[in-house]
From TrEMBL:
The gene is sugE. The keyword Transmembrane helix applies. The lineage of its organism: Bacteria, Pseudomonadati, Pseudomonadota, Alphaproteobacteria, Hyphomicrobiales. Belongs to the drug/metabolite transporter (DMT) superfamily. Small multidrug resistance (SMR) (TC 2.A.7.1) family. Gdx/SugE subfamily. The keyword Transmembrane helix applies. This is Guanidinium exporter.
Length: 104
């Protein structure tokens, strides 16, 4: 169960990171409320996950999920550049996430 909570926390982190773009500097009410809600849910789920999981592992995986998802959605939604170096770095982060999961 803590791994599911951690994964959901990471997905909500992606949501708030992408949501920041849509808030337009927190001037748009609905995106701002949704982004703030995603932040809160993400932190609460992370807090629940670290009751069981090692803090360092959970935090690294949480930020890794957020990083990878945000980069991918940045490419898809905002036409951010796709380069071999960026894709290679994403692969390294995913490898790190999987490695931490299997040694925790």
């Amino acid at each position: 169960m803590p791994w599911i909570l951690l994964t959901l926390a990471g997905l909500f982190e992606i949501g708030w990171a992408i949501g920041l773009k849509y808030t337009d500097g927190f001037t748009r009410p609905l995106p701002t409320v949704l982004t703030a809600g995603s932040m809160l849910v993400s932190i609460v789920l992370l807090g629940l996950a670290v009751k069981t999981l090692p803090m360092g592992t959970a935090y690294a995986i949480w930020t890794g999920i957020g990083t990878v998802g945000t980069v991918i959605l940045g490419i898809v939604l905002f036409a951010e550049p796709v380069t071999a170096m960026r894709l290679g770095c994403i692969a390294l982060i995913v490898t790190g996430i999987l490695g931490l999961k299997f040694v925790a």
